[in-house]
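> example.struct
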């Protein structure tokens, strides 16, 4: 199989030997996180470097590399090659203290009347803050749950991304993704290890785990993802229509009960399933307000069943259902230097029974407040996500200061509330204070 560094070498084989110009930039970020028990959660140094090369009027290249060092080991990955990555993806080196990776590496070119981006990249669909409806092209790292910026937590994929301009300011985007890389969960024993029964199987009382297996897709052709997005501008509305045939980035935990001498055991087989996603977005500015909406229909979603229910054994602990999700957001900028944004997320399962642990309807409200002070020298951001059904949520706050035009300092705090079986509440003990700095070169 082609390893990431070998794939990079193949790209270089097709590049011209000389180029007209290059640009280089880098960002050095330092961040310290201390939890409410006084323990250092991370003391991380992150160096992102970007190299842009212009070979001709029709060929450009972007290469983004990352070095991550962390003197604490609580959030790192102990595996040298984490098993969520495909053979053409993953870090060049990784352990609990460090990681060296090619973050993105792609070519931009024009063929006929279309624009092609070929290589490792991020593609963002949707406009929601804090949670995702259509932004599912790239898988995500959950080593800090959802606290990390999406730009950092998304896992770039090797793909073919084609933009085709059409008449009347419209365009068609075509995606082909042969990269079989999926979500990266926090490791067992780390602060953000998933423990809620909404996401992690809970064994029946008196039953032990008899075995765990994982089945991953293996064919880069047969198991690849394919997406289409049509974008248009109509009567001051920005509108998109989206379609994605993909493998869900989280495995489904099928559970089989087996009788062995003197006890019952459960064998878990984690399998990745396919789904069709149909969606649309629409946004429009009304004076100081901007209305945003996003809807997605997934033909297949999978949810855990209560181990005490009668349906547990017959359905291997899993209920499959179509899912209709949406978000409506309203942004207000009626006062100078202030942004206030409210969002309502909804998820509705079309096939449901009372044995499913999550409710049929899942509603989450978000409130985002951003303000700058002293000619944008200071900035404040507060984001609250609140789950209505479980009465749980998260609160992220950050106060930043621009010391120089290329130097930013910040202090922040992240809080979770709710019961330990809830989506947010499972991390109630991970509240933390964060100190950070960023220098651009």
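> example.seq
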């Amino acid at each position: 199989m082609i390893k990431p560094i070998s794939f990079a070498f193949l790209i270089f084989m097709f590049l011209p030997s000389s180029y007209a110009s290059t640009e280089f930039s880098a960002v050095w970020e330092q961040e310290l996180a201390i939890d409410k028990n006084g323990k250092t959660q991370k003391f991380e140094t992150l160096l992102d470097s970007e190299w842009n090369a212009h070979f001709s009027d029709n060929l450009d290249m972007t290469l983004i590399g990352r070095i991550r060092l962390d003197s604490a080991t609580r959030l790192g990955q102990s595996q040298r090659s984490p098993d969520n990555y495909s053979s053409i993806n993953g870090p060049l080196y990784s352990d609990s203290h460090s990681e060296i990776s090619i973050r993105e590496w792609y070519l931009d070119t024009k063929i006929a009347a279309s624009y092609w981006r070929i290589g490792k990249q991020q593609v963002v669909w949707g406009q929601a803050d804090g949670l995702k409806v259509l932004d599912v092209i790239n898988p995500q790292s959950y080593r800090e749950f959802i606290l990390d910026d999406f730009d950092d937590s998304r896992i770039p994929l090797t793909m073919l991304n084609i933009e085709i301009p059409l008449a009347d300011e419209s365009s068609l985007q075509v995606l082909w993704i042969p990269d079989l890389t999926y979500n990266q969960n926090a490791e067992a024993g780390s602060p953000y290890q998933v423990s809620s029964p909404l996401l992690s199987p809970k064994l029946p009382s008196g039953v032990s785990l008899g075995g765990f297996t994982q089945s991953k897709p293996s064919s880069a052709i047969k198991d690849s993802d394919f997406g289409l997005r049509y974008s248009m501008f109509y009567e001051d509305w920005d509108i998109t229509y989206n379609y994605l045939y993909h493998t869900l980035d989280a495995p489904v935990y099928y559970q089989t009960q087996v009788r062995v001498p003197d006890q019952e055991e459960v064998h878990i087989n984690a399998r990745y399933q396919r789904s069709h996603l149909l969606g649309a977005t629409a946004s429009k500015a009304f004076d100081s307000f901007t209305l945003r909406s996003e809807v997605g229909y997934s033909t297949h979603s999978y949810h855990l069943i209560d181990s005490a229910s009668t349906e547990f054994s017959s359905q291997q602990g899993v209920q499959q259902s179509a899912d209709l999700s949406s978000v409506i957001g309203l942004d207000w900028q009626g006062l100078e230097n202030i942004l206030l944004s409210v969002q309502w997320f909804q998820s509705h399962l079309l096939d449901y029974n009372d044995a499913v642990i999550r409710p049929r309807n899942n509603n989450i409200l978000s409130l985002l407040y951003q303000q700058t002070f002293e000619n944008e020298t200071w900035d404040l951001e507060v984001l609250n996500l609140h789950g209505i059904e479980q009465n749980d949520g998260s609160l992220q706050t950050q106060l930043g200061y621009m010391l120089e035009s290329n130097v930013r300092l910040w202090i922040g705090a992240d809080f979770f509330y709710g019961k330990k079986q809830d989506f947010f509440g499972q991390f109630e003990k991970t509240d933390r204070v964060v100190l950070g700095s960023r220098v651009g070169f």
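> remarks
The domain at 4-440 is CATH 2.40.160.10 (Porin).
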